[in-house]
């Protein structure tokens, strides 16, 4: 890296630190503020839950579907933030005796992810208190972290960059404009988005830094790792979609036909793939960074792996 490049990179980390200090928030004082969730509200916007595809659901059932999916949304973030924080702690070691501005940006990133996990545990407890028992989270955060962290750093940073970009897409395009959403839920994702905006910039900086270190052969292996990570994410989504559909059907006060049961199962899986894979890919920002790092055949390999999920 030339001196000019190093200076501009340091300046970008410095801007992340400044933004992080400016918007810093506290879980109780700024976000929850003694409030609870209201069962009369939606927990996830319709254009994320894709509930419109399930025409046979009553308005009450639609709202409950948004609450089940919203609860899963909070749980999935809590889940991925376990591995994200572990990776950030690991790569921050590279900066220990180097760029101290980059080090500070990563330390703040890590601390924020710890806070987010705590926030999502609180949200989970609040959501649980408004819903009948029987809801389950199928994946375990440390098991997921172990699987993800077993892959190359390049691929892990690619996945992380994708996640932190779609967090922003969801907030700006779906959560912020939705007036039917629970005000507390909206505040959770407003505050989360504010800190994630810095994370997405840092992910890209670290992803590019890692990319510059790799040989062409190593990068090609990392592309395979990324494809395996996406398959792993899809496995988690399939299991959670099955569990959430089963829960939704199990606690309903009426029987659904075989066709309706199938439609609920398919609808929830489609929504989860949309939320956690497709919406981030479609946004274009992630693909733009990816395309700047890989060859055309590698990009086609990744697109080919994504095609059945889109
Ligand atoms: Fe987060
Ligand atoms: Fe983050």
**In total, how many beta strands?**
0
Q: What ions, cofactors and ligands are bound?
A: fe (ii) ion
Give the terminus-to-terminus CA distance: 37 Å
Which percent band covers the strand fraction?
under 5%
Radius of gyration: 20 Å
> SS-based structural class?
mainly alpha
The ordered H/E elements are HHHHHHHHHHHH
Proportion of helical residues: over 70%
Shape verdict: globular
Sheet with most strands: none
pLDDT average, as an integer?
96
List unreliable stretches of 5+ residues: none
Description:
This protein is an all-alpha fold and 310 residues long. 77% of the residues lie in helices and 0% in strands. α1 (3-23) runs parallel beside α5. Residues 84, 113, 164, 196, 199 line the site of one fe (ii) ion.
Q: What's the short story on this structure?
A:
By secondary structure, this protein is an all-alpha fold.
Give the topology.
Elements (H helix, E strand, L loop, with lengths): L2 H21 L3 H6 L13 H4 L9 H34 L7 H29 L12 H9 L3 H23 L7 H31 L2 H36 L6 H26 L1 H9 L2 H11 L4
Helix pairs in contact: 1-5, 1-8, 4-5, 4-6, 5-8, 7-8, 7-9, 7-10, 9-10, 9-12
Provide keyphrases for this structure.
single chain; 310 residues; mainly alpha; 77% helix; globular; binds fe (ii) ion
